[in-house]
Amino acid sequence: MGYKKADDVLPKELVMLIQKFFDGDYLYIPRKRGNKLSWGEKNGTRKALKDRDRNIYYNYINGATKGQLAKANHLSIKSIERIISKEKE
User: Fold this and answer.
1) Radius of gyration of the chain from its Cα atoms, rounded to whole angstroms
2) pLDDT tens profile 20-40
3) Residue 20: what are its φ and ψ, rounded to 5°?
4) What is residue 73's DSSP assignment?
5) What is the number of other CB atoms lying within 10 angstroms of the CB of residue 83?
6) Which of 11, 33, 76, 81 is deepest in the core (most CB within 10 A)?
7) Is the entire prediction scored with pTM above 0.70?
8) pLDDT for the residue 22
9) What is the pLDDT of residues 35-70, one digit of tens each?
10) What is the C-alpha to C-alpha distance for residues 60 and 88, in angstroms, rounded to an integer?
11) What is the residue-wise DSSP string for 19-87?
């Protein structure tokens, strides 16, 4: 979530109206229904983790050990096992 300065994105009249109720503090405005993004969609984290997991599985089926994958990806062996199991499906 990023912060935007109200003066930069809203009409001056609307900013003045909001200031009557809420002056000089942070205000969260939720997304409209149907516009919500899933976790990691906005900043690309979800895609990066999916790519990482595919790469881990690819290396595993091509001979890398779970220990090597854990060390290379800074993960526990248990996490590597979970990723391998998930990617098999």
Assistant:
1) 22
2) 988 888 888 877 776 666 666
3) -65, -30
4) H
5) 22
6) 81
7) no
8) 85
9) 666 666 677 788 899 999 999 999 999 999 999 999
10) 11
11) HHHS-SS----PPPTT-PPPTTTTTSHHHHHHHHHHHHHHHHHTT--HHHHHHHHT--HHHHHHHHHHH
Range list of β-strands (E), 22-62: none
Residues whose CB is less than 8 angstroms from the CB of residue 64 and which lie 6 or more positions away in sequence, other chains included: 72
**What are the structural domain ranges in the chain?**
6-31+41-88
Structure-token pair, residue 44: 């690309």
- Burial of 30 from C-beta contacts in 10 A (0-12 / 13-18 / 19+): exposed
Quote the CA–CA distance of 29 and 27 in Å, as a whole number: 6
